[in-house]
Design a protein that fits this description.
CATH topology: Aminopeptidase
Largest sheet: 7 strands, mixed
Shape: globular
Number of helices: 5
Mean pLDDT: 94
Distance between the termini: 25 Å
Strand order of the largest sheet: 1-2-3-4-5-7-6
Number of strands: 7
Structural class: alpha+beta
CATH superfamily: Gcn5-related N-acetyltransferase (GNAT)
CATH architecture: 3-Layer(aba) Sandwich
Oligomer: single chain
C-alpha cells in the first residue's frame, strides 16, 4: 500500500536518492554513461535544498511512501514557458520511482494525485517533456492519456545532444 503526501525538507535526501537512482536506471543507454556515473545523491540533495527553500517557489512536490519509506516522487507546477491559446497549462517537471518498484502503480498514483491537484488549482491541461529514446516513459505517459504534440527541444549531456518530446493531456 502506498500513501502520497506533500514532500517536506526532511525528505530531500530520500528524494535525491530516488531521483539519482531513477536517472541511472531509466537513462542507461540513452544519456552518456559518464554523465550518469557523475551523478551523486549528495550533489542532487544540495541542488534540491536550494530549490526547495526558494520563498516564491511555484512548484509542488509529492512523495509516495511505502512500508519502508519513500518510494517515489513527483514535481509539478505551472508550465515554464508560454503556450498561447491552450488555456492554463500545468507541467509535470519530474516523476521518478525507485527502480526496483517500477510497474507496481506508484508512478500512476503520483501522476493521478498531481493531476487532481493541478486541476484544483485551475489548470486545464498538463504538459511534460520526455526523452525521445525513453520508450518506457513514453508508453507510461501515453497510457495516462498524454499525446506527443509535435514540439521538441534538445538537451546536451556530456557534449551529446538528446531530443525531448513534449506531451500534453487535458485534465
Amino acid at each position: 500500500m502506498v500513501h502520497v503526501r506533500e514532500m517536506d525538507g526532511a525528505d530531500i535526501e530520500a528524494v535525491s536518492t530516488i531521483r539519482v537512482r531513477g536517472w541511472q536506471a531509466a537513462y542507461a543507454g540513452i544519456v552518456p554513461q559518464t554523465y550518469l556515473d557523475a551523478m551523486t545523491v549528495e550533489g542532487d540533495a544540495g541542488q534540491r535544498r536550494q530549490l526547495f527553500s526558494q520563498p516564491r517557489r511555484k512548484s509542488r512536490d509529492l512523495l509516495a511512501l511505502g512500508d519502508r519509506g519513500p518510494v517515489g516522487w513527483i514535481c509539478f507546477g505551472p508550465y515554464r514557458s508560454e503556450m498561447s491559446g491552450l488555456g492554463r497549462v500545468g507541467e509535470v517537471y519530474a516523476l521518478y520511482v525507485s527502480p526496483g518498484l517500477i510497474g507496481q502503480g506508484i508512478g500512476r498514483r503520483l501522476l493521478g494525485e498531481a493531476h487532481a491537484r493541478m486541476k484544483s488549482q485551475g489548470f486545464e491541461s498538463s504538459a511534460l517533456w520526455v526523452l525521445c529514446d525513453n520508450q518506457r516513459a513514453r508508453r507510461f505517459y501515453e497510457r495516462a492519456g498524454y499525446q506527443a504534440d509535435g514540439a521538441t527541444q534538445d538537451d546536451v549531456y556530456d557534449e551529446i545532444t538528446l531530443t525531448e518530446l513534449r506531451y500534453q493531456r487535458v485534465l
